[in-house]
């Protein structure tokens, strides 16, 4: 059919969005159905969703989708009439048909004109309809389902943005590029607001016409209020529930567990927690890596769990909640756990770290060994793991969005991996500081406290500078030394320590001056300076100067390497 008509394009886009929303919900509904096979209401709900997609596809002329949905509908109809019972093989086949529908939907979205081979899936559905199937090969069926799921994962990011469209009369769909444009304009408005506030302060200091100054201050205050409200409104428009990411995991956990002959139950909480769309897009792949590792490495077989006195069915928990200006996302399991000493030995044997360095690692630092490129505890390479790639990519992706990762684990009891993520990446609160004559920005979400100190209060222990604050020892990194080298001289008697907290890790940054708090619009450094350690981006301050925004995770790495002067 032709895609030239604007009106038809709108109809097709509506179909794509609504069908994607339905399919996203169907994955969870099918997982519920497998646990409650006699739930007639749930079966009817699933049937209506497939029937609706078939009807819309037929109206638009998408014949391949009609063919697949029709066969799937026939199987579901038999199930809801009680003519067949829900079995693992039947469920595997239905899920494969759903994956195929998703693939066809993506082809329509891409308008690539590609046709898929429907025969294998339709043949499986037909065999079920006619009673020609065996329910004694669950592992093989699950493997096929995983492969299909992986193919669907490859096109996940290419799907149309999915907004809440339950009440059409109260909502409209807006292209994400338009939202990005509005956000950029709001950012520029913030910069202009900051500039005016600086100029207003200078005008006040000049001692000129007080009445005029009063009017200027009122106008600036009103602009500040409107700018803040506009910024919050734009940010809210970009916020999406993390359920968009979490919804795919019930299916993935089910397929992986069947493939590996393990019993795993997934528990999800906090799926209503909202994040900026950009952050949502970045955390999907890291979470996939961690959940897969939890099932592959972390979870024992049912027989092993029974031998240890555990329930046969393992438990994986996926949770999200807001903590201040951050969102916390955690993945935990009740599996084997990780032995820090075993991790050290493995890293030394693989030549990833020297034995002397391994001995000095604390328990929490030992867990971070899994993020070293090339490290793996898998005894054999499989389609799931063992190549030593994945966890290093996880850390890279999370660091790229100014997030942090912490690991807690206990042998025999399980592992918890926690992400702390910013609510948004565009407009942030920053503490501006000065070191070596240059001004830098530190994300306020990482700042615990600021303390004025003298040079005598900074001590050296085993070649590293530290400071004792209320009986707690903090390693110290001199910001001026990091930027200008060891030759950077102290030009003032008083200095300031900015205490930085990243998860459970804390350290101090020594700076010359504190300039104050400012709302900034962080910009990318571009391809030329991309990946510069310790630098997250740049911004324009209220006085018109360009400053660098420091990457706290990168500075923490410097501290952990002992790069402290």
Describe this structure in words.
Residues 136-169 have low confidence and may be disordered. It is built from 19 helices and 18 strands. A hairpin with a 2-residue loop joins strand 14 and strand 15. The longest helix is centred in the N-terminal third of the chain and has 30 residues, at 6-35. It is flat, with a radius of gyration of 28 Å. A six-stranded mixed beta sheet has the order 10-14-15-13-12-11. It has a five-stranded mixed beta sheet with strand order 2-4-5-7-6, with helices on one face. By secondary structure, it is an alpha+beta fold. Helix 3 (63-80) packs parallel to helix 5 and helix 11 runs antiparallel to helix 16. It has four domains: 6-157, HPT domain (Four Helix Bundle (Hemerythrin (Met), subunit A)), CATH 1.20.120; 176-239, Helix Hairpins, CATH 1.10.287; 242-422, Histidine kinase-like ATPase, C-terminal domain (Heat Shock Protein 90); 427-560, OB fold (Dihydrolipoamide Acetyltransferase, E2P) (Beta Barrel).
